[in-house]
Amino acid sequence: MPKHNSELNEARADPGFQGKCFHRMEQRERAGFLGYEAVSQNGTSLEEQKERKGERKMNYAQMTAPCGLDCFNCPLYLAGENLELRSVISKKMNIPSDGAFCKGCRNENGTIPILNMTGPCGVYQCVQQKNIDFCSDCTDFPCDHLHPYADKAGGVPHNTKVFNLCLIKKMGLEAWAQNKAKSVKNTYFKGKWKI
What we know:
By secondary structure, the chain is mainly α. The protein contains nine helices and no strands.
């Protein structure tokens, strides 16, 4: 096993790793460093600015995992274009900077190299076999592929999957992605539990 695998597992075992990355992203975002969510002084998002210039618009269908995770808000995805964030991830996980990012679940065909996956996750395989886009399109939804786990719940947002999928179904993908996905992740990592 390469040396960085054990260090990667150790970093992944840190329950607050993704939460800390997300918090750092949020701080930098306020300062205008992040790509798709950052807002310029005139109040337009960088996504709107890119669209006006004829650059590509975010493909939310491609950048939302079949399980409902919002890859487009993930620190590992954002590190693809944000070299400062990539450097933070590289140092935290003790891996080379050129491998400290992810292209998103669908772009990686369900096998995320930075997570040392050797094959696609069960959800990705299932939606491919059933020829559906999201788990919520399935007659078996929700199933055990989406089971919540306490393990690493403080550091990775996997327990938001079913909630996100329900919101996508209710609001539509674009509306969820633009208006709700980020607040779901923010509430998950920073919100106070209430009944």
